[in-house]
């Protein structure tokens, strides 16, 4: 939880910015040697997952290859990312293409199980030896590829992909620039997270110079929302609670049914909660058919939510991480108690809020 906590993987095991040019050429060679390429990203894909996937698919096409790029999960491409070039051309999960592939390229996945149900259905296919490129920025990445480019210093996988284009002297087209900007803006909440570095800003500036449409990206990622989103936030926020210094709420299937919202429409709630005065961390639980999906966030300098998530089999970044829990209220309660215990004492006003006292 503190800054010195030991994660299984540390930055020292991974790549830095300066490794990207050499890695980019190795990646290009692997792509040129492959006949049947499949590009994959994690389930419930966010803007960086979809953006890095689309931009990498575009890079493969420009190298003369015809990759199959797949978004996985029940709500494959969120509606607000459908404006991206090529988003409508993403294939639904195609098991046979994965079985037949001689090169798999994973984007923004800390490990293959991030593919979700697809991974468990085809697990032997993902475990057998074959060429596999792993491009990611999660420090918890387990380096499952035969070629790994894991740059934890990058704010987004899309930032790494931009550097790959530049390393290969491939001019970035305006549509590609918009896609990559969307990935960077998605993971940095519009260049606002502490993961935003001078390099992130430089890459973003270069993408705007290449014709990236930042205004459209900001509209679709941050401004425009359906009414169902507003209604779902209302439901979730009306159930918000303190557990010590942890602020948390949950999204249940009934809330989705009542508001007509999808799970993805609740994604921003946990970031909003992290700003609660006195909160050392925020947690949003989704009740899924198989159990609880958990998102953790913190704004506190001495809290590492990736470490907290790892205690429960998950992973992620210092400020944003997640994990999965077995179904049942007992599992949820044990998890919340453990996180609250790790975070330390509750702020005074949190106790007041959770005590049920009449408001003054
Ligand atoms: Mn990412």
Structure description:
- The protein has helices at 20-33, 47-62, 95-100, 117-121, 123-127, 157-167, 174-187, 198-209, 214-223, 227-237, 253-259, 269-274, 305-310, 329-343, 348-354; strands at 37-41, 68-70, 103-107, 131-136, 147-150, 241-243, 246-251, 281-288, 291-297, 315-316, 320-325.
- The chain folds into 2 domains: 11-223, inorganic pyrophosphatase (n-terminal core) (Alpha-Beta Complex); 227-354, Diaminopimelate Epimerase, Chain A, domain 1, CATH 3.10.310.
- It is an alpha/beta fold.
- The structure holds manganese (II) ion.
- The site of manganese (II) ion has 6 residues, from loops.
Please describe the topology of this protein.
Layout lengths: L19 H14 L3 E5 L5 H16 L5 E3 L24 H6 L2 E5 L9 H5 L1 H5 L3 E6 L10 E4 L6 H11 L6 H14 L10 H12 L4 H10 L3 H11 L3 E3 L2 E6 L1 H7 L9 H6 L6 E8 L2 E7 L7 H6 L4 E2 L3 E6 L3 H15 L4 H7 L6
Parallel strand pairs: 1-2, 1-3, 3-4, 4-5, 7-8
Antiparallel strand pairs: 6-7, 8-9, 9-11, 10-11
Helix pairs in contact: 1-6, 2-6, 2-7, 6-7, 7-8, 7-9, 10-11
The structure holds manganese (II) ion.
């Amino acid at each position: 939880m503190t800054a010195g906590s030991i994660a299984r993987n540390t930055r020292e095991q991974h790549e830095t910015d300066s490794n990207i040019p050499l890695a980019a050429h190795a990646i290009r060679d692997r792509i040129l040697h492959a006949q049947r390429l499949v590009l994959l990203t994690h389930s419930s894909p966010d803007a960086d997952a979809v953006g890095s996937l689309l931009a990498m698919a575009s890079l493969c096409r420009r190298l003369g290859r015809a990759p199959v790029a797949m978004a996985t999960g029940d709500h494959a491409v969120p509606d607000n990312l459908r404006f991206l070039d090529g988003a409508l051309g993403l294939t639904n999960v195609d098991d046979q293409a994965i079985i037949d592939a001689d090169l798999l390229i994973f984007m923004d996945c800390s490990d293959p199980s991030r593919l979700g149900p697809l991974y468990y259905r085809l697990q032997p296919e993902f475990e057998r030896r074959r060429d596999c490129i792993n491009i990611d920025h999660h420090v918890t990445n387990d380096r499952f590829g035969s070629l790994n480019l894991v740059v934890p210093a990058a704010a987004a996988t899309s930032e790494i992909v931009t550097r790959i284009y530049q390393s290969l002297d491939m001019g970035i087209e305006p549509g590609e620039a918009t896609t990559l900007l969307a990935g960077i803006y998605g993971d940095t909440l519009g260049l606002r997270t502490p993961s935003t570095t001078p390099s992130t800003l430089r890459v973003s500036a270069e993408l705007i110079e290449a014709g990236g449409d930042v205004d459209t990206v900001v509209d679709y990622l941050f401004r425009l929302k359906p009414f169902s989103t507003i209604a779902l936030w209302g439901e979730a926020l009306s159930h918000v609670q303190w557990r010590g210094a942890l602020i948390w709420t949950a999204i249940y299937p009934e809330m989705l049914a009542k508001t007509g919202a999808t799970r993805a429409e609740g994604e921003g709630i946990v970031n909003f909660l992290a700003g609660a005065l006195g909160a050392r961390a925020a947690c949003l639980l989704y009740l899924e058919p198989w159990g609880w999906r958990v998102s953790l966030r913190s704004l506190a300098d001495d809290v590492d939510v990736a470490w907290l998530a790892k205690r429960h089999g998950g992973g992620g970044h210092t400020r944003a991480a997640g994990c999965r829990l077995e179904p049942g209220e007992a599992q949820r309660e044990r998890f919340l108690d453990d996180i609250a215990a790790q975070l330390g004492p509750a702020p005074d006003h949190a106790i007041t809020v959770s005590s049920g006292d009449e408001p003054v």
